[in-house]
Amino acid sequence: MMKDPLRVGKAIRAQLEHEIPRDLPLEKDFREGTNYTITDHVNELHAQLCPDKRTLGLFTSLVNHLHAFARETQPTHGEWTRAIEYLTRAGKESTEYKNELILLSDCLGLSALIDELNHPKPSGCTDGCEPGPFKTDDAPELPSGSSVASTNTAGELMYFEATVKDTKGQGVPGAKAEMWQADGDGLYDVQYPNRPEINDRARIIAEPNGHFSYRGILPVAYPIPSDGPIGDFLHALGRHPHRSSHIHFMITAPGYDDLTTALYPSHSPFLGTDPVFATKKSLVTSVTEERDPARWKAMGFSEGEVQKRGGRVWLWKYEFVLPSVEEVVELKKRHDAKVSKL
Amino acid sequence: MMKDPLRVGKAIRAQLEHEIPRDLPLEKDFREGTNYTITDHVNELHAQLCPDKRTLGLFTSLVNHLHAFARETQPTHGEWTRAIEYLTRAGKESTEYKNELILLSDCLGLSALIDELNHPKPSGCTDGCEPGPFKTDDAPELPSGSSVASTNTAGELMYFEATVKDTKGQGVPGAKAEMWQADGDGLYDVQYPNRPEINDRARIIAEPNGHFSYRGILPVAYPIPSDGPIGDFLHALGRHPHRSSHIHFMITAPGYDDLTTALYPSHSPFLGTDPVFATKKSLVTSVTEERDPARWKAMGFSEGEVQKRGGRVWLWKYEFVLPSVEEVVELKKRHDAKVSKL
């Protein structure tokens, strides 16, 4: 025992040969209802020991908010146990293609908030949203006016046209619009077994005035995966897993801030109860029916093709407004000033 | 397509045959810097759909605090990804005997806080702390004065004596004190391969005046498991995993509130940096050396036994103060009044 004046066990002794951890005097007693609670104690410990300023800022805020949550809601031991079990299960049931903790962050509105905080937009610019799990790296680059859907794709015909503009209303030159979407069965190409073809996705090269269009299929609504823990979460809150119909876009142009977003047709159900909170009102637009064969032809559809698919084409128009890099740098400076106060 | 006027995909159609989820009008646009943010939107949705008041209260507070945390700290996408990956890994690496999410809750001070909130103590009562993972159901019931350590147990000899009192200073009749502790190598009996014997744990029956004692081994410090995600967390914050030396107690007596706690000798290292924030100052007491053979005998040790183990016995004394059930009911009423406001 003389070898162990600190009275630490074997496991610690093995580590102490390399490093003696710093101890601090236990100066104050921490107790609820006093001027010095466990929250103060945890944060004071971190303030004295944490080697990195950003880590300290993140965890000080996290400890403050988690502890405030506990004081506000007074969780029972049973509720705490269920929360631990839920998070453990969410980790265990996550796979490479379906992460339950990302879904939880999405369904708490946290992912959308962090996306918005990271992409401040000057007034009048198109709102962003998260890209979601179905973006791939292999979308073909196609000229404006191309078809993005193969002939066998399930669904109704759609013609999408848009202009990419700056905050002054001028068309932006050099824009590319990557789009990816579900088909008329609510499935992305990557969700079909063995992914028979690249479909319903492309990198469209806009015209020099910022205008671009493509022919494709009207997307329909589909659910997020709800067979695991996130389904239980949504059920407990009275919510459903169904996302509104949408097309994803990632718009880029030299000198402008990248825009990742999605557009929603106003006819879609679930706009008011979207599980991941991506249906910003500014991204919802009406889609109209085009029944004029002359217009079908101008869009690039053959009359036979349209007649075979119900005798109409859905026409979807939008104006994307991108901030310049300078405009965003200016806004971010203000945000960073807030963060550096931590 | 006529069959699908809502334009929802196959996966949703299959579910809609059973139930049409309620949609809400998308009345307001949510955006940072306006009067209606995503936080308002999420909480309003839950307020309209959640079928259970307590669930709504818990998640409204959680959403408010997680969103406030994000606004305060402005996490980058990279930081958010690391947090998701961390929690996923914590779930995946958890086992029946080592739950990384419990450890994370412990090391953020959250477990200790929730324990304290659930066990409000009138002033003067002994503070509580969590039982930890090493309590078993098979501790033998022994009369006061018994030995709890087998002859081969590693460590220095200790005599522990205490009285269980009420808030008026009177000894409490009918008390039982379950104790469990590590030995002189920092290991609990259950940590030895195949657990050769029940050791260093017992349910001691106190005398009618509340006094009890036992003979055993001075516990030494040991680390919490730090080979997984919690080790990375502690390292990032400049902290170590070593718990101070301690004895766990669970004291029960008819008519009194159960007390789960632990006591710490003032000679222990790591009192100021305990990883799970259980070293409340009121639980730390000095332990003295007894070198008088007459006293050893009175304690129940043989002189030969003591001489073989370094020629001294450590004497540890404490007074446990338990609130009556009535006193706690009164305090809890006040706490519940707070919670019901949610």
Automatic annotation (TrEMBL), chains A, B:
Q: Which residues form the Catechol dioxygenase N-terminal domain?
A: 52-125
> Which Pfam families does this chain map to?
Dioxygenase_C, Dioxygenase_N
Which keywords does this Swiss-Prot/TrEMBL entry list?
Answer: Dioxygenase, Iron, Metal-binding, Oxidoreductase
UniProt-listed InterPro entries: Catechol_dOase_N, Intradiol_dOase_C, Intradiol_dOase_core, Intradiol_RC_Dioxygenase
Co-factor(s): Fe(3+)
Question: Any keyword Oxidoreductase?
Answer: yes
Q: Which GO terms describe its molecular function?
A: catechol 1,2-dioxygenase activity; ferric iron binding
Instruction: Pinpoint the Intradiol ring-cleavage dioxygenases domain residues.
Output: 152-293
Name the Gene Ontology biological process terms: catechol-containing compound metabolic process
Q: Which family does the similarity line name?
A: Belongs to the intradiol ring-cleavage dioxygenase family.
Q: What is this protein called?
A: Intradiol ring-cleavage dioxygenases domain-containing protein
